[in-house]
Amino acid sequence: MRTRVAPARPRTLAPLVLILVALALVSGITGGLVRAGVPLPSLFPLSGWAGHAAVAHAGLMICGFMGTVIGVERAVAVKLRAAWLAPLASGVGALCLLVNKTDVGAVLWLAAAVFFTAVNVVVVHRQRAAHTLLLLGGALAWLIGCVLFLRRPGDAASLPWWFAFLVMTIAAERLEMTRLMRRRPGANASLWLLLGLMTLGAALTSFSVRIGGVLYGLSLLLLALWLGVFDIARRTVFAHGLARYMAVCLLGGYAWLAVAGWAWTGSTLGLPLRDMALHALGLGFIVSMMLGHAPVILPAIARIKIEFGKFFYLPLVALHLSLIVRLVWGLDDPHWRATGALLNTGAMALFAATMLGGALLWRVRHARAGNDGE
């Protein structure tokens, strides 16, 4: 008798998680617009879910959106049903925060981080390497941040840990991509030293915001320099097609990471640079990475094909220009800050439309090729 093997990707669960991802993204962006001072129509009542989204903006974007997306990517990679518990918990947790059930949402985010850490232990068990150990380190950073959020939901002490989760995850992916490159002696050791400095800065922030913040900001700045020197993007930027596009996204993101490190340090020392620190890191660096990797990762996760073209550069340029409007012109002007935030949203919407257009273009071209073959 043949034993039927259950699929690793639950057919009923995946669409639900996708809906939760979209909900977290839309609500997180809405909350960000409210915080930036963008006037919204009456459909978005500040006394209701939009107001809750404004309070939970960072958590919705990092845990609800990015945490769920990364959880799905890891679940697909390990091919275990239980791995889907992490993105399901983080997605439902975001929904709880939108209905002002912060305590329940915090517990679910902590559960998501625990499940996600367990999944990464499996990854390390299957392949013990520098990049898998770093992925596990990022999962632990998310876990620590969620513990702090559960204990003190209104405190910003969880933010450095949550950002460390994303930064370490990105660094691990870049380390994996460049592991076959010949690097100078001490390159890997210096990377671990920088990430250790980031971890120390995040930990000290709970006790001394100034000392911890300065160390954290310096680690971001030095990490940007490390990536600019050692990442393979500095070579592939001279390639063509998708490889060049990814390299441009990465190098642009590293520039914003350096800005974030400088601004994080300055904000800690009392300069009015908090919005620049958070969004140069969250939008300039992390979203640039997302734009660069999405044409490769999304097809693997969603099992679709994307036709790449030069039109992919449009949302990338829009993102960088909107950040300049928000973080430079809007540094001392609330009107330009709000305008820049609105343009940030437009850039992300343009990227979503670009991905959809790339998928439709692939279908049209291959359907035409199939008809010509007949």
Can you describe what's shown?
The protein is an all-alpha fold and 374 residues long. The protein is built from 14 helices and no strands. The N and C termini lie far apart (41 Å). Residues 1-7 have low confidence and may be disordered.
Shape: globular
pLDDT < 50 stretches: 1-7
Q: Give the overall pLDDT as a whole number.
A: 89
Q: Count helical runs.
A: 14
| Share of residues in helices | over 70%
Strand coverage percent: under 5%
Total beta-strand segments: 0
Structural class: mainly alpha
| N→C terminal distance | 41 Å
H/E element string? HHHHHHHHHHHHHH
The largest sheet is: none
Backbone CA Rg: 20 Å
Give a short overview.
Helices cover 78% and strands 0% of the residues. It has helices at 13-36, 49-55, 57-78, 85-98, 102-126, 130-151, 158-177, 187-205, 209-230, 233-236, 241-268, 274-302, 313-327, 334-373.
Defining key terms:
mainly alpha, single chain, 0% strand, 78% helix, disordered N terminus, 374 residues
What are the SSEs and their pairings?
Layout: H1 13-36, H2 49-55, H3 57-78, H4 85-98, H5 102-126, H6 130-151, H7 158-177, H8 187-205, H9 209-230, H10 233-236, H11 241-268, H12 274-302, H13 313-327, H14 334-373
Helix pairs in contact: 1-2, 1-3, 1-4, 1-14, 3-4, 3-5, 3-7, 4-5, 5-6, 6-7, 7-8, 7-12, 8-9, 9-11, 11-12, 12-13, 13-14
